[in-house]
Amino acid sequence: MRTAIRAALVLLAALGVLALRRRGGGTARIVRISRVVADLDRAVAFYRDGLGFRLASRGPGDPAASALLGLPGTPAEEAVLHLGDEEVALVRFDPPGAPYPADSRSDDGWFQHLAVVVDDMAAAWRHLAAQSPRPISTNGPERLPLRNGGVVAVKFRDPDGHPLELIQFPPGGGRPAWQHAAGAGSGPFLGIDHSALAVASTARSLRFYRRLGFRVASRSWNSSPAQSQLDGLPGARVRVTGLRFPSPAGPGLELLRYTPPGRPAPAAPANALLTDWVTLSAGPAGLRRDPVGLRRDPDGHRVLLTGGR
């Protein structure tokens, strides 16, 4: 029976990838990024009060998604929060799994952050400070060199240990949506630009994500003192590869290949607090977001495929 179930899930995942490839020209997009938390009330308060997210819904988690994640029948509660046009889901499983590793670094294979765009870094950082975020960056916000985009950024952790980044693009930088939103009275927090994943091999990860319909949108090699302070990682050297779908909607992904790479990700169950997953949608407008498959990239990051937008 278990063998049959496993074979069915593999088939569903393959069908989901085929749907993405067939419909990728304008419909495929990242719907949301989900992360596992231990205390849902605490997590919602942090994202709402510290980062400007608004609570859109809260209720039982999707049993179909839990089954695809390897936790059939496990109770879960999910809170979906919006920031601009993007959304994040915070999920608490019962029982919760292992805590986020306390000694985690920016180059570890399980690293996955959310990059929240701001239009005023000083105001955003002051506002967030009231929530006592756990720092990753050693000296607060850093301005990266122009060759690396000239952004101002700072990294920190939420109450469960998940990494986040605030990022402010220079004039004319980033997606046009951020330039239009900046100064429009909606700041300082505007939306989610991307989720960045630590990878051991850029080429290997690119093969995986290209099969899902992603295209390379940017490349850079970051090795400045500012990058080291941003990552809280002495001597940081990282190849950054930005990925997006052809559609302009939704966040992108960044592949972070540190030299040398950090520790590989453990084979953690989906209810472990270090767990994030990206939900991709390939269906036409109007379809429900029914989960149709789960994939793991070469470094173990989870990708949930759905049928609707």
Number of strands: 16
> N- to C-terminal separation?
32 Å
Specify the helix fraction band. Answer: 10-25%
Percentage beta strand:
25-35%
Q: Mind telling me which CATH architecture of the domain at 112-258 this is?
A: Roll
CATH superfamily caption of the domain at 112-258: 2,3-Dihydroxybiphenyl 1,2-Dioxygenase, domain 1
CATH topology-level fold name of the domain at 112-258: 2,3-Dihydroxybiphenyl 1,2-Dioxygenase, domain 1
Explain what the structure shows.
- The protein is α+β, with helices and mostly antiparallel strands.
- It has a domain at 112-258: 2,3-Dihydroxybiphenyl 1,2-Dioxygenase, domain 1, CATH 3.10.180.10.
- 23% of the residues lie in helices and 33% in strands.
- It is built from 7 helices and 16 strands.
- It has helices at 2-23, 40-51, 63-68, 121-129, 176-181, 202-211, 225-231, and strands at residues 29-36, 54-60, 76-83, 86-93, 112-118, 134-135, 142-143, 152-157, 163-168, 189-198, 215-222, 238-244, 252-258, 276-281, 291-296, 302-306.
- Strands 5, 6, 7, 8, 9, 10, 11, 12 and 13 form a 9-stranded mixed sheet that branches. The protein has a 7-stranded mixed sheet with strand order 2-3-4-1-14-16-15.
- Strand 3 and strand 4 (86-93) form a beta hairpin.
- The radius of gyration is 18 Å and the shape is globular.
- Mean pLDDT is 88; it is low at 1-26.
